[in-house]
UniProtKB/TrEMBL annotation:
Belongs to the chromate ion transporter (CHR) (TC 2.A.51) family. InterPro entries: CHR_Transporter (IPR052518), Chromate_transpt (IPR003370). The chain crosses the membrane at residues 7-30, 82-103, 115-132, 144-177. It is a multi-pass membrane protein. Its main location: membrane. This is Chromate transporter. Coiled coil: none annotated. Pfam families: Chromate_transp (PF02417). It is found in: Cell membrane. It comes from Laedolimicola intestinihominis. Keywords: Cell membrane, Membrane, Transmembrane, Transmembrane helix.
Length: 199
């Protein structure tokens, strides 16, 4: 029981800390979650993190909250989900509330505008880092189909400007078809008896 409370506390503190220092959108907090829960705590495998990110991205709503939901549920079930959501939404709620009060002062402030521009550059570097980490994991797996899907999705989005929703739906369809074919082949292999194989 104490161990579960410790895990829940760590989830809350981690998501609170990550959310408080995340600038530039949900992809950044997903990157930081990967570093925290995969690289530091070793609670989640890298392949599992990729699956959780895919679920978070393909679900409606903010990816930061979706990511917290799937990671929290993976680690501690429903209580983990609740504390992860709470930890994720508290910092932006407080920060936006303060900014809304002083919006007129912030809006035309030269220092604030320069500060935000600097943050954008840092955010770009962080997103590039997570793309490299996750993309290299797919390449190292040497799964030709996964690599082709990744390249096709990149070209469709960056070169042809296809809506991300269509790309996600297409990738989900391909993944479903691959799973069905793999399961069917697996059942076909197990249906053969040793006698059938010898004959």
């Amino acid at each position: 029981m104490n161990n579960k409370k410790k895990v829940l506390w760590k989830i809350f503190i981690s998501t609170l800390y990550l959310s408080a220092f995340t600038f530039g959108g949900g992809y950044v907090i997903v990157t930081l979650m990967k570093k925290k829960f995969v690289d530091e705590y070793h609670w989640i495998e890298e392949d599992e993190m990729l699956d959780l990110v895919a679920i978070a991205q393909s679900s409606p709503g903010a990816i930061a909250v979706n990511g917290a939901i799937v990671v929290g549920f993976k680690l501690a079930g429903l209580p983990g989900t609740l504390v992860a959501i709470l930890g994720t939404i508290i910092p932006p709620f407080l920060i936006i509330s303060v900014i809304s009060i002083f919006y007129a002062a912030f809006r035309d402030n030269f220092v604030i505008s320069r500060l935000l521009l600097g943050m954008q550059a840092g955010v770009g570097a962080v997103i590039a880092s997570v793309v490299y980490d996750m993309g290299s994991g797919i390449v190292h797996s040497k799964n030709i189909v996964s690599i082709l899907i990744m390249l096709a999705a990149f070209i469709a989005s960056c070169v042809y400007g296809i809506n991300v929703i269509y790309i996600i739906l297409a990738c989900a369809t391909l993944g479903t078809v691959r799973t069905l074919v793999k399961n069917r082949n697996s059942r076909a292999d197990t249906s053969h008896t040793p006698h059938d194989r010898q004959s």
